[in-house]
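Reminder to self: keep the SMILES exactly as supplied, no canonicalising. Ligand is S-adenosylmethionine.
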Amino acid sequence: MGLYGEQVLPRIINVACGLKGAQPLRRRVCEGLEGDVVELGFGSGLNVPFYPDTVKRVAAVEPADVGWKLAEKRLRATSVPVERSGLDGQSLPFADNSYDTALSTWTLCTIPDVATALSEVRRVLKPGGTLHFVEHGLAPDARVRRWQHRFEPMQKKVFGGCHLTRPIVDLLTAAGFTITDLDEFYEEGAPKIMGADSLGTAIAP
Ligand SMILES: C[S@@+](CC[C@H](N)C(=O)[O-])C[C@H]1O[C@@H](n2cnc3c(N)ncnc32)[C@H](O)[C@@H]1O
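Structure tokens returned for the bound complex:
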């Protein structure tokens, strides 16, 4: 990945994703998480302060060592046991039907083979288990979409493979999830091309 991807980018993500404006969204998306949780793209642990008391433990999946290091302070401040349990959402080292809930925040944009990652989440969730997500993706407006397509090649280069045009709801549905809760909106304070968010929950069959 090189020095930029390994050392610099996780620090940029820690600052950009750590902006205060995202906190109410993190609080909302973490509501209802329970039991054994798998978090995809744990990053620097920015969701840790929002895990509810109903969470028993978290298996964190994150390739970036620096992200994990940046999470140390948040990990010390929580009573929820969090273990770095995997490096790649495309190949989860967990048994079938082993997690109660899953969490993914602004991660499905970046995982190279997102369909495989979602089928992995589905596999490791117990039947009826829920994936809680807030993700940016393809905008509802044609004008914004045109700009997303123009900027996407640059975005991918600068932000470690981050796509702007992934149709989040379609991807979840294609992976076999049933969406039970969905809010779609432009994130306040973010450029529309990067802030067309889908927040909700999806149930594994
Ligand atoms: C935009 S960041 C979001 C981080 C975190 N979820 C948050 O909300 O702050 C995307 C994250 O996905 C991680 N990522 C990239 N490829 C991945 C993969 N194959 N499996 C799991 N996570 C991955 C990145 O390292 C990065 O931490």
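Points to follow up:
Residues 157 and 163 are 10 Å apart (CA to CA).
Helices lie at 2-17, 23-30, 65-70, 72-76, 114-124, 142-158, 168-174.
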